[in-house]
Amino acid sequence: MAVRGAALPTTYVPFAQPPFVLTSMGVQAVLTPSMVSPLNGATIGVWGDSISSISGNAWQNVVIARTGATLGFQDARPGRGMANWFECYANGLTPGSTLGTYNTSSSAGNCGVYTDTGTVSGNTLAENLASVQMLIIQDGTNDQGLCETDCGSLGDSTNSGSLYGDMRWVLESLIAANHTMHIVWVGPQDNGEGTHAQTQAVIAAEQAVCALYGIPYLNLSAVGGGSAFNGPWYTNGDLTHPGTYAFAHFYGPIVAQFIQQYF
Hints:
Rossmann fold
């Protein structure tokens, strides 16, 4: 029973326990950010490279804590780029190809070994992604070599070999596998794998392709706090991979805040 004011009315009949006075501090103690997140209870997935695979799911754990979501799928490994995105599915080493089923031996040493989740051998891509309600794509760092001279252009065929073509293959395959799944894309920051100009070329290509398919794009290079200026501090020392503090206070929170807008 809720009553207005600081005193109980004379008609109030007490319950077996003392009345509870709810204060703002009490509300803060009861409610957590994840409880009011639109993603609370949702199943998310991650597809990415070493930033998602070799640091103990550092940024993913922040996203889970802040959203209340469950990580039901993950496929990530160091060095992954768009051209080998589906390397663990038969025929997936050839951009533009029709995918077969998931097999840990499809690309030796790269499949099912980096805290992957929900990647079941013998399943199709659609079967592995069936329960995923939001998929977070984290990639681009290892694609900078494709943009040394030319990234290609919007509309390139899926088997063209350009970055634009590879991204088209990735998105069209994912959307066909689970068309009700929300997809969000997290782009690269300045890193030791290429120059600032190359990174910006990849970002421009990713933004253009995402806009074409209606995919929300997080330009982490612009808002993630990491740059060539503070790379030695922001990363773990290699100028590419965020360090523990950056994952917990920059990368993870920014991704968590961003993705909740689109669910």
